[in-house]
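re the bet — no i am not wrong, look at it urself. input seq straight from the record:
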Amino acid sequence: MLALFTATMQPTPGPSAAPAAAPAPTARVLVSLATYNEAGNLRPLAEAIRATVPSVDLLVVDDNSPDGTGKLADEMAREMPGVFVIHRSGKLGLGTAIIAAMKFAVERGYDYYINLDADFSHPPRFIPALLGGMTGDRAVDVMIGSRYIPGGGVEGEFGPRRKFMSTGVNLYARLFLGLHTRDNSGSFRCYRVSKLAKINFSWVRSRGYSFQEEILFWCQRVGCTFDETPILFENRRAGASKLHAGEAVKALEIMFALGVDRLIGKLPDAR
């Protein structure tokens, strides 16, 4: 099923409140959830997304979760119109899961693609604000849900180590990749699919969490414009985090290599 969505919004007074509404064009929107052991979060999150933006399509990309998340996703696809599932053979990395979803959006002709984490750390109430950045006089190609602009932030536990990792990765992204946005490591974003179609995904080197910074780099290379809207990042409701220090180190390595290749003109012509 290819759903229709009428996005409506005005700038939100703050991230804790649901965005207000104003008319916007009809658009086809895909929301993806990359899952590994998220059985406790998947159904309530999907229901919360549909309660906020009822007509979006949902795509679950599951990496053969031992806890039965994939089976639950199949049940939801049978029960809920506009829910799709991609099953993968194992834990292949967050970056490749998002690429699979992006390709799905391109191939099915969606207008906008939204990704959010499958653990409730990205509250669905901010989705209308992301979609609001895609239309109007100040429309952009990538709208980022940002923790690091006024009005954004983190609720709950965000320890010194995790804060250091996030700060370091974002600093590197601006320094080596030439990005100007503040929150380059979060995955809560809306993309214009016609711009994603210009990216050759074979260029992407990241397989894990460093994908978040790298995909913004390639979006920039194909001419995307960017903006940020404040969100509150919340603690996951169920399950365990998959993020660890090794992911941050790998992200820094990839950004450094991309930055060097950018400096010496070794990157493919993306325009």
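see?? Residues 13-263 form a domain with the Spore Coat Polysaccharide Biosynthesis Protein SpsA; Chain A fold (CATH 3.90.550.10). told u. also The mean pLDDT is 86. so pay up
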